[in-house]
Amino acid sequence: MAGSKRTVVRISGALAAMALVATAPATAATLRVGGAASIPRSAPAIGRPPPGLRLHVTFTLAPRDPLALAIYARAVSTPGSSLYRRFITPAEFGRRFGAAAQRIALVRGWLRARGLTPGPLSAGRLSIPVSATAGALQRGLRLPLRRLALAHGRIAMVAGAAPTVPAAIATAVQSVIGLDTVSARRPQFVRPHGRARARAAAAPHVATGGPQPCPAARQAANASGADTADQIASAYGFSGTYESGDRGAGTTVAMYELEPVSPNDLAAYASCYGLQTALSYEHVDGGAGTGAGLESSLDIENFISLAPAASVIVYQGPNSNSGSPGSGPYDTFSAIVNQDRAQVVSVSWGECESALGISDAQAENTLFEQAAAQGQTIVAAAGDSGSEDCNGGGSLPQTQLAVDDPSSQPLVLGVGGTTLSSLGPRPSESVWNDGGTVAGELLQPGAGGGGISNLWPMPAAQHNAGAGLNVLAAGATGAQCGTPGGFCRQVPDVAADANPATGYIIYFNGDGSTPGQPAGWQAIGGTSGGAPVWAALIALADSSPACGLEPLGDALPALYRAAGADYSGAFNDVQTGNNDFTGTNGGRFRASAGYDEASGLGSPNTAALVSALCAQSLRLVALANQSSAARSHVTLRVRASDVPAAGIAFSARGLPPGLTIDPSTGVITGRPLRTGTYRVTIAAHDASTSAATMAFAWQIGDATRVLGTSLITSVTHPPVLTFTVSAGRGAPPLRELVIGLPAGLRAGSTRGITLSAVGAPPSFSVRRSGDGFDLRFKRGYRTLRITLTAPAIAAHSGRQSHVSGHATGTVSLQVIDTAGDITRLRERPRHLVG
Question: Is the pTM for the entire model greater than 0.90?
Answer without folding.
Answer: no
